[in-house]
Specification:
- The chain is α/β, with parallel strands linked by helices.
- It is built from two helices and eight strands.
- A hairpin with a 5-residue loop joins β4 and β5.
- The two termini are about 15 Å apart.
Amino acid sequence: MKALLQRVIRASVSIAGEVVGRVDRGLVVFVGVASGDTEKDAQYLAQKTANLRIFADDEGRFNLSTLNVSGELLVVSQFTLLADTKKGRRPSFTSAAAPAQAEELFERFITAVRNTGLKVETGRFQQYMQVEIHNDGPVTILLDSRDRF
């Protein structure tokens, strides 16, 4: 399971011109679920996301987490994080989980980050979305649940 975190001052996600999620200071979190991922992967990424210290303290150092700054999360499913570009010019997505499994683990990730007390807004699974991001920094971090081993 992968999560791409982008620190933002504000962000929103729309479907067919309707805003379905909006946050202020916090993170946009794109989540991709791989075949073979489990609930442990979702729990690990949720905890890592909430606690990763990527917000500056008074001295400008990355010492504060989203929890510390009472940040907000905009979580959007994105199977393209599992793209394999090793061969040819067209990415392969064969390592992405089947939609039913991916949606279940995506929802478990959302539940886990909500359980930390953070405000969480979301896009809609398997929908064509437009995401408006106002990056802060910019700061972009890629997390992979398989890196915990």
